[in-house]
Sequence to fold (392 residues):
Amino acid sequence: MTTQSVCLLGATGSIGVSTLDVIARHPDRYRLFALSAHSRIDELAAQCLQFRPRYAVLPDAAAARTLRERLAGSGIEVLSGPSALAEVAAHPEVDTVMAAIVGAAGLAPCLAAARAGKRLLLANKEALVVGGALFMAAVKEGGATLLPIDSEHSAIFQCLPEDRSTWARRIDHIVLTASGGPFRSRDPASLRDVTPDEACAHPNWVMGRKISVDSATMMNKALEVIEARWLFDLQPEQVRVVLHPQSIIHSMVVCRDHSVLAQLGTPDMRVPIAYGLAWPERIESGAEQLDFTRLASLSFEPADERRYPGLPLAWAALRGPEGGTAVLNAANEVAVAAFLAGTIRFDQIHNINAHTIERTPLDAGAAASLESLLALDAQARSVARQYLKALS
Fold:
């Protein structure tokens, strides 16, 4: 059996920790080449000492110096900066890249991995939300193998044949399921009073604070709609969303003959991670097996736009000028950070997102290159922050 060399970007987040759990179960299959983190130096140091990668990467030099001191004598080389992330992601000795960095910061290393023809496990949905056509072109040109890790997109992928050329002939539309988050039954008028801790208390999944807030607003699902459009080469109207509070059916493919294919399982991210690592094989994930005798019911309901006003922004951005999805993502990152910091109310997240889309000009060529996308991202963040000041 050939051992895969894995570069794990975002090792200390929930996806990163779950990835390490799966890898630890299969030491004969996988070895860690590089680990990266944003700011959790203690956690990254412990991971490095356990898994002994060749490289560890942090975003700034000061943090890297601290980690270097912690790992003195270990033989692990500590790098820093965005260029270091791209370097390890595209390294000739790397077979597989798990892209689990949260936000637009993950786009550059994802592009580097795609252009280098890696097996790219995409847990960073922003790479497609921001990069879109540019990212998919890099995947094609580099000959990369792109495997989705979001539970919904992994579910769709698992329902489709390996021959991608047949997908368009088979699919009528896809249905992304959403739990509805912690406020599915709450009076929309009361959402202005939601606290960050309440928004982060997801009923089914264990996630980081940013993605938990996105789940509560359903902006996470909006971003997943955009991601699905690119992953499966669909028109915006071919991607639909339905609430499924139990989070057992992870998503569905509705075929042209109206047959419905669904992937079911316990809500545990180790399942899509294990699938991505071993594809097209299946390996032990560590997740609990689904017990059908304990399932009381599987229910579905439409998403209430009064409670989730940000969800329709996905289709609006996809139908609008190129670059609109990057603007939406940038605005949302600014808005969620402000909410978690206590600067704005929960219901004002949508106000910032909608305002930023309306006020950020989209010039021709805005999404033509990484540099132009990063410039657009910075411009959108500036617009969002100016509006944030007015709100606060």
Remarks:
- DSSP finds 17 helices and eleven strands in the chain.
- Residues 370-391 form the longest helix (22 residues).
